[in-house]
Amino acid sequence: MSATLVDVLAVVAPLIYLVRLLPQPVRLWRTGVAAGVSALAAMNGVIADVGWLVYGISSGLPAVWGVSAFALIPATWTFLLLRREVSRSDLLLAGVWALALGVSAAVGAIGLTLGLGVLVTQGPQVWTALRDDDLRGIAPGTWWIAVLDATAWGVYGLGIGDGALMGYGVALNAAAMIVLGRIWWTGHRRRGGGSRPDGSGAAARTMSTLDTEH
User: Fold this and answer.
1) Is residue 68 over pLDDT 60?
2) Which of 118, 120, 121, 123 is nearest to 164 (CA)?
3) Residue-range definition of the domain harbouring residue 95
4) Number of domains, the chain
5) What is the residue-averaged pLDDT of the chain?
6) What end-to-end distance do the CA atoms of the chain give, in Å?
7) Which of 166, 172, 164 is nearest to 59 (CA)?
């Protein structure tokens, strides 16, 4: 990979990452609807940004620690907007994640943990999207931009030989595809009135129409 491309990605990837963090808090703030949005994922994201900040500084990667510092602003905003959705189990799991990063940093393995940690930061949101049928709170733009984000950082990681960034790219791309697929599917069902194979959804819509006419 050419040094020019690596240099370009060092600038572009952080910008894409920051843009990705904006649609979700803006949607939450504008609509007040949190349906389908994982508070645990938001907490884990804030903790991960702190971890990436430490990793970037210790590894001498300005592109990583610089963007992580700025990312704490929208990430924290998202968490604050979801604070009423936080459960005790969420707090416990987030604490375990923070402890894991602290131990990893102490033994010099924080890069590996962060590379795998995208599963921790995005996993709760993927699980919520798979479990819930009401995903109105999720901002689709976040996940479309996530595809670009994952690709840019993954290629950048490949260019500099950084396994943590390559792992981030692969895992985030997978998470984005799952969430976008679920957003499409639940929206399709909602537009179709939740029809089931036995036709009961269509029957319910017909009865509703008759009631309205009378």
Assistant:
1) yes
2) 118
3) 3-213
4) 1
5) 85
6) 70
7) 164
